[in-house]
Amino acid sequence: MILDDLDRHARERPAERAVVEIAGDDRVRELTWAALASETNEVAGALASLGVGNGDTVAFQLPNRIDFVTIALATLRLGAVCEPLMPIFRERELSFMLRESGARVLLVPSVFRGRDYAAMAAGLRSELPALEHVVVVDGDALTGEAAPESPGPSPDQIAQLLFTSGTSGEPKGALHRHDALMRAADHHIAHFGLTGDDVIYVPSPLAHQTGFLYGMWIAIRLGAPQVLQEVWDADVGLDAMRRFGVTFVQAATPFLADLTRVAEDRGETPERLRTFVATGAAIPRELARRSREVLDAEVGGAWGTTESCLGCAFARGDPPELAWGTDGRALDGVRLRIVDDQGRTLAPGEEGNFEVHTDCLFVGYLNRPALTAEAVTEDGWYRTGDLARIDSSGYVRITGRVKDVINRGGEKVPVAEIEQLLHAHPGVRDVAIVAMPDERLGERACAFIVGELDFDTMLEYLDSHRVSKTYWPERLELVETLPRTPSGKIQKFVLRAQASELVTT
Questions:
Q1: Residue 170: pLDDT band by 50, 70, 90 thresholds?
Q2: In this structure, how many other beta carbons lie within 10 angstroms of the beta carbon of residue 460?
């Protein structure tokens, strides 16, 4: 169990560095393993004093700070469920997610990046009867007596509730058990050959599975220092990586692009960096080639989902053309297959529906048994919604998506929800949102609208409905009609082709 790992490190290496926080103003805060365990116990005591106990859900909307780590560990210490919420979420997303989970406690910063989170959270109280406590956390605000003695969680208990955007018009809450997350961490550690001598860099949001599991969790599992960056800035990131001897990073492609650009401009490298795993969006081949050269490290791709954890990835020593030209090969404990629409397994090289069988699979979607049944086959394979090919050597190439979700630098845009919202605008008669290629982020959203609506008005409308800016379309094209099939379905492949042409013209 991850709490056993924390306690062991606190006993065996109490004075060694456990976690580093690089704040937005370049302030640095550090905790040793002994201090991390001590603060975790104090936070657990504070949560217990609010009535948090075994099986309760604790929601926290925090940036990459030490507070996030201690609150997550304290929640698990009490046998409660972590519900991390992305800092980009606003009232619209938060009210849905908190109502779904029935969280009794919500922890937020007072102000972050100019937004008053305390006021926003307080405003949600009246519409969320289950939410008993809103706690503002700023460095040292959440302390209490030591945590009460408890047997701690069992391996089969739920540890994490993580919401993922889908195409059904609303987010889905994926539930993970302690043992599944532990297995996922161990498979990852083995695949990339990580040890306690590594230093793990976490620029990805801790409220994403990439940051939570493949940053924070694996570092604690290993007993390796983790370096958190509160606000992404490539110059600050390069300095931090050099200062603390970072050896391993897993983050979305935009982080790699920015870091490579800055390292190239400055003529400096993160000297101890060994591996950069780029997830969330396909790595442009030229970026991968340049990154390997500039960063003097192995760079490659990987594929995973919130529900299945990491399924395949490049491995150390893979030839460059396989490391960045594919999505890698299966991790231990994972099986992959390509099937047709009737569920028949296809031959190597054939394109079809990509399915995963793993011992790290989620329990299901919170309050959504029908969606859970739809996502998992009768024989236990997870339907990823992706189209792919697997070659005779087991390397995967993701070729597209069955469901229409835009992947903006690792952040999946819930297309159906935004389309429905725009449909309600009086100036919109019809709307379709599709992916538009982008060199840095992989994809951005382009809205094709039939009606009378200019770009600024569209953004003001989405802002008035408290939609996260990450989900806003970044281009608007007014059209006379949308291409449709004889049955009335919008031909989004036609619009995607048009959006691609817009980028090149």
A1: low
A2: 10
Radius of gyration of the chain (CA): 22
Per DSSP, 147 falls in state P
What one-letter code names the amino acid at 237?
G
pLDDT of the residue at 168: 40
Strand, coil or helix: 58: strand
For residues 357 and 311, is the Cβ–Cβ distance under 8 A?
Answer: no
Residues 442/282, Cβ–Cβ less than 8 Å: yes
**Each residue's pLDDT tens digit, 418-456:** 887 898 899 998 899 999 998 888 899 999 999 999 999
Burial of 341 (0-12, 13-18, 19+ CB in 10 A): exposed
Q: What is the spatial distance between Cα 234 and Cα 226, in angstroms, rounded to a whole number?
A: 17
Does 141 score more than 60 pLDDT? Answer: no
CB 58 within 8 A of CB 103: yes
> Amino acid letter at 341?
D
Query: What are the percentages of helix, strand and coil residues in the chain, rounded to 5?
Result: 35, 30, 40
194-205, pLDDT tens digit by residue? 999 999 999 999
Q: Please name the helix (run of DSSP H) or strand (run of DSSP E) that holds residue 321, with its range, or none.
A: helix 320-323
Percent of the chain whose pLDDT exceeds 90: 72
CATH of 1-16+29-180 among 3.40.50.12780, 3.40.50.740, 3.30.420.40, 2.60.120.10: 3.40.50.12780
* Helix or strand (DSSP H, E) at 192: helix 178-192
CA 170 to CA 147: how far, in whole Å?
A: 36
pTM: 0.84
Domain residue ranges of the chain, discontinuous segments joined by +: 1-16+29-180, 406-504
In this structure, which CATH number among 3.40.50.720, 3.40.50.1820, 3.30.300.30, 2.30.300.10 belongs to the domain 406-504? 3.30.300.30
Q: What are 453-492's pLDDT values in tens digits?
A: 999 999 999 999 999 999 999 999 999 999 875 445 678 8
